[in-house]
Amino acid sequence: MSIPDAQIHPVATGAASETVAKHQDPQEITLWSGWFCPFVQRIWIALEERGIPYQYKEVNPYKKEKHFLDINPKGLVPAVEYKGKALYESLVLLEFLEEAYPTVKPSLLPTEPYDRAVARIWVDHITKNYLPAFHRLMQSQEPEVQEQARKDLIEAQKKLVAQVKGPYFFGEQFGIVDVAVAPWIVRDWVISENRGYSRSQAGEAWAKYAKAVTERPSLLKTESDKEHYGQIYGRYLRNEAQSEAAKAIRAGKQIP
Ligand SMILES: N[C@@H](CCC(=O)N[C@@H](CS)C(=O)NCC(=O)O)C(=O)O
To answer: Where is the GST C-terminal domain (predicted)?
Structure first.
């Protein structure tokens, strides 16, 4: 039987719980988080990378409580309150943090407009090609569909890594493209252990990039214990998850 969404582990564990403990005081930025969520992790990484002060608040987005729907009417994490005003959508939030804190270095966006546009092209690739393939690979139950999804994911990884200067997308500077994809790289054990995927299938360059990204301290600091992710991803692997993302993938629609 599937575990009801309300019974997911309620709070961050492991290294992430230490990071949460350090971010309890009210700040200009409140991060409304689900500890397990890859979209949240994008924002969490960005805040940690740039040292922007924030208060961490845990919410179970599956419960759709009124107080949270008032912050994000979509009922999804991440959401951010900035000086008491609400914002949501992880990619919008990443860009917002750049604009709201332009002098806090290191910036995650390159300086030149051309390079910024290039970064956005590859973030778009992650949204349109990488994430749908990853989620289809997790959720599909039919071997042929899984095989096609695995191939699509490998292709998306090869295309992305062909643009990587190394060790990160824009060279030495860890940036927005790396942040956008990192949470799905650190979760690739789900498909390695269950769907016949391995990093080397996308080539040595991908394996090297994946290693560099997953060793980034901001990523390590926002990771909970594996066993608690296992409970959540088990439902995706059995195609029982009832999240908006899971329903969209099942219906062949874009991830909301
Ligand atoms: N497009 C959104 C997706 C956010 C999202 O799907 N968050 C999930 C958790 S990982 C959520 O809040 N799910 C609640 C639900 O599906 O009801 C973003 O980029 O922020």
So the answer is: 112-232
Which residue CA neighbors atom 11 of ligand 1 most closely?
Answer: 76
Percentage, residues of the chain above pLDDT 70:
97
Integer angstrom CA distances of residue 81 from 28, 51, 71, 73, 211: 8, 17, 8, 13, 33
Q: Which two tokens stand for residue 3?
A: 């575990």
What are 93-135's pLDDT values in tens digits? 999 999 999 999 899 999 999 999 999 999 999 999 999 999 9
| pLDDT value of residue 123 | 98
Distance from the first to the final alpha carbon of the chain: 26
CATH topology classification for 5-100: Glutaredoxin (3.40.30)
Which CATH architecture fits 113-250? Up-down Bundle (1.20)
- How far from chain centre, in Å, is Cα 256? 14
| Cβ of 256 less than 6 Å from ligand 1 | yes
Each domain of the chain, given as residue ranges in start order, spans 5-100, 113-250
Closest residue (by CA) to atom 13 of ligand 1? 76
Q: Is 164 in contact with 97 (CB distance < 8 Å)?
A: no
Question: Among candidates 7, 61, 8, 12, which has minimal Cα distance to 32?
Answer: 61
Q: In this predicted structure, what is the pLDDT of residue 5? A: 52
Is the pLDDT score of 1 beyond 80? no
Q: Examine the pLDDT at 3 and tell me if it is beyond 80.
A: no
Report the nearest-CA residue for atom 19 of ligand 1: 90
- How many Å apart are CA 122 and CA 169, to the nearest integer? 10
DSSP state of 223: -
Considering only the C-alpha atoms of the chain, give the largest distance between any 2 of them, rounded to a whole number of Å. 52
**Which of 155, 161, 106 has the alpha carbon at shortest distance from 130?**
155
